[in-house]
Amino acid sequence: MLPAMHILELAVIALLAQNGVTQPLPPNSIHGSVVKAGTSTPLSKAIVEVHADSASGPVVSSTVTDSDGRFLFRNVRPGRYLLVVARSAYVRRLLAVIVGDGQDTPDAQVAMTSTVAISGRISGTSGEPIGNVEVQALKPSYPDGRRVLTPVQSVRSDDRGEYRLFWLPPGRYYVNATHPTAQDRPGLVTANFAGNFFGGGGPGGPAGLRMVRGTGEPAAEAQALAAVSEDRPPTDRYVPVYFPGTIDEQAASAIDLKSGADVAGVDIPLAPVHAHHVRGVVINGATGQVAQYAGLRVANEDAPAGGPGGGPGGGLDGGGDAQIDPDGSFDLTLFPGSYTLIGTAGTGVGYVSLQVRDADIDGVQIVALPAFNIPGRIVSDGGANPDLEKLRISLRRDVAVQTSSSSYSLPRPDGSFVVEATPGDFRLSIAPLLNSILAPPFLSVPKSLETAYVKSIRLGDVDVLNGGLHVDRPPASPLEIVIGTNPGVVDGTVLDESQSGTAGATVALLPDVRRRFDLYRATITDSSGRFHLDHVPPGDYRAFAWEEVSDGAWQDPEFVRADENRGTPVHVGEGTVVAIRLTAIPPQ
Questions:
Q1: How far apart are CA 194 and CA 515, in angstroms?
Q2: What is the model's pTM?
């Protein structure tokens, strides 16, 4: 509840404004109003929070707008803040605010956009409605350039098979549905009875390990157990289906929603899918022969984190350790999807990426090659920096299904390091500065490296930083990494078509080398349309400003491609301050 004195102040301000009397607002305050976008209609009961510098920063203060949509924060310390405004049925809005010492802060006008809704029907193979189906709205993001669909809302279909996803921010969505019998079914896993479950040889035989995970439904579980007794897994089951009716995430249709849209008819049919065999061998690359007692692991592109082996079915089809015969051959039962098979033999490891579609796959060969060392050296262009020793250097294999690095190197006091690799294509990770899986608070940046960036990575004449690393043997030259310490600054203003400052616009600075996702920068304009980006690594960029855009949409190459000619070229030099003016891109 607002203090009585605070409510009285807002009421007096509103009354004076109605009578044409301007009342000076106190200095060191944040004040303004919230309205429905495209109108002058005030929005009451909107929650307004003042955050320290970013939406993830601590909440400094909060309030609720009055009947005229106004808000006021008194005695705010000088500094840069972010207003976060939220209200039911409207999209959360962000607005940067700078409070000067003893100065009047411009009135903050926050226009809120209506949310959107998606509805449809879930049916079976004969058109019958299916209830209790989990339906998810998923938003795409593009870490390291790979599209990842993240659930943002989940509902269940009713007895008529109907569902409705609502209060979604405008933007691009994908929708999937998962049959109730798949909800509690992590999947069936059977061991290869010629070896142990983890594929490393060892004792087994007819009495070897057998594992089954229940379905939660007695009849289905009995059927699964019967299948195990026959030494064969079931070959049909329900998996998540994406609109308009595909189990291939890459073939799913996007749904683009504008403000206030209510899209119906997003219907999804559900049917069991058939598993297929993937057969092949693991070859010991050191001998060129089929490996004995090899190991095999399966990584699934569609596997969400958290489950045993991940994936919509868990077990082998979702990812995890697979069974393999002592003679190096394997016969996997996989449901359609994208996979990376990782084979080990002796001290070697090999990778093969494949797509399982509507047929068995035979003749897969995984060549496990011994690892070798790649020496390197990391230095700072500003001279000696002992905190470079705290960086973690590793290689991340560039395969269709991302696999994390199993080891990393810490630079020695002289900057030297060694990373291990097998033949293939890689991205170099320098945590937490470049291609890092870990982020604060899991891996903090030393204070002396807060303005640091990766300036160059070279292997002889090869530009590894922008082009990636390919190795097929121990290299003749060491990796040379240079850490820059003199970034630039980009300041600017976003104007609308009438040349007025655009408040709350999203500004994104994208590098000309678009695969350099570590260089992407984004911020929000203040009430005057101004923005500020610091710690910008030198280079060539293109700046964009959108009046309204969903979070992270600028990471989508397809989204940016439509507005590419509206971007402004920007060159940032070492230690320079670049001032630019951008024209806001209106909602489409």
A1: 45
A2: 0.71
